[in-house]
Structures are given as structure tokens and as C-alpha cells.
Amino acid sequence: MSDGFDAEDAPSALGELTGHELWEHTQRSGQRVAAACEQLIAAPSARARVALAPEFLRRVRQLLTLRLTAVARARRRAFPVQVPTAGSHGIATLWAEVFWAARARSPDDDSGVLQATDVSIRGLLALEPSDLADPDQVRAWSERLELVEETLDGLDMEAQAVVEGLQTAAEHRQ
Question: How far apart are CA 49 and CA 153, in angstroms?
Fold first, then answer.
């Protein structure tokens, strides 16, 4: 079930994707993560879940790479760069850029959302197949991934709103 693109195998290709192409790849990747999660939960035994877990983890990493690439790209367009841009497309590097840029924009934010997302991303990246032997753990990590995606959605929407505001202001000046 491949569309010829794998974020983990060809990270340099991400920079060449248009916004719409990146969105399409992200949507397909999300569907693949959901399908892999369902397979894990439905597996008949812990041994079967551990055997399926590497594919699930690969899909999660691919989704995170795509999502973070899109959010980092949107935030670079919307806000002046206050932190160095990610030099690579690695999940940790992209997340560091997004995290610290968001913190720079809202240094007094004590909601804990960014910190919770940071803990979840780190946890997702540290998962081993044996950590997913229990279907309840699969569900718990899937829920944490959903919360990460909600945070990324919020950061992306904030950037899009700023870009649209800048475009509207530019149109009115003309």
C-alpha cells in the first residue's frame, strides 16, 4: 500500500512537495497509521502485536515527519524566524524548531500543551515493539498521537491565520 513516497526513506523529497501534495501525503499517512493501529489491536496475541509493531512504529514516524514538515513550513511563512530552521527533516529536529518557535511567540504560556506534546513525541519515538504487546498500551499511545496531532493542528491553524491576515493586508495596501 504505497504511493511511491516514504517520508522516512526520502526526507529530502519533502522540500520538493507543494503544500497540497504534502497535505495529501499526510492524509494517506494518517489513514495508514489508523489501519496499522487497528491491526495491532485486533492481533490475536501479544506475540502477534509485537510482530506487527515495527510497521505501526514506522508509520507513526512517517506521519510525524510529514506533519512536522507541514507545520514548520507554515510557521516559517507566518512568523519571523526567531529560532534556526531545521537543517534536516528528522522528527526531533523539526519538533525542536516548532517547539522553540512556539515558545518564543508565547513565552508566558503555562498551559503545558507544548510540554505534554514534547513528552508524547519523545515517548512515541522511544517506543519498542515489545512496548505494544498489550492492546491497552496500543490504544493509549494512539490517543497520545491524536493529542500530538491536535496540537500540531492548532499550531498550523495559527500560522495559516497569520498568513491569511498578511495577505489580506497586502491586498488592501495595493
Answer: 29
- Please tell me the predicted confidence (pLDDT) of residue 28: 96
Rg (CA), the chain: 17
Domain boundaries, the chain: 11-173
Contact 85, 38 (CB under 8 A): no
Per-residue pLDDT tens over the stretch 39-83? 999 999 999 999 999 999 999 999 999 999 999 888 888 887 666
Q: Which amino acid is at 16?
A: E
Look up residue 68 and give its three cell numbers. 512536522
Whether 49 and 43 have beta carbons less than 8 Å apart is answered as: yes
> Mean per-residue pLDDT for 108-116?
89
Rounded to whole angstroms, how far apart are CA atoms 33 and 173? 45
Euclidean distance between CA atoms 174 and 168, whole angstroms: 10
| CA dihedral for 159, 163, 168, 173, sign (positive or negative) | positive
Residues 56, 128: contact at Cβ < 8 Å? Answer: no
